Amino acid sequence: MTMLRTLSRLPSPKFDQQLATGDTHLDQYLQALDAELVGAKMVRNHTLAAVREQLVAQKASLIADGKEATTASLAAVEQLGPAAVRGQAQRQERRAFYVNMMLSTGLPYAVFMTLFNLSSETAQESSWSGYISMFMFYFLFFGNVMAAYLTFGQAPAKTTQRVESLKPGETLEVFSPPASKAAAAILMLLMLFVGSAALLGIFDIGFMANTHLAANLFMVYIAGAGILGATIVNNRLLLQGDTLIKQSLFSRQVIPLTRLVAVEPAPGWQAWFRIGFGQRYILHFSDAGGGSIKSSLILNHEMYNSEQLLTLLQQKVKQVS
Question: Domain residues for 76?
Answer without folding.
Answer: 3-90
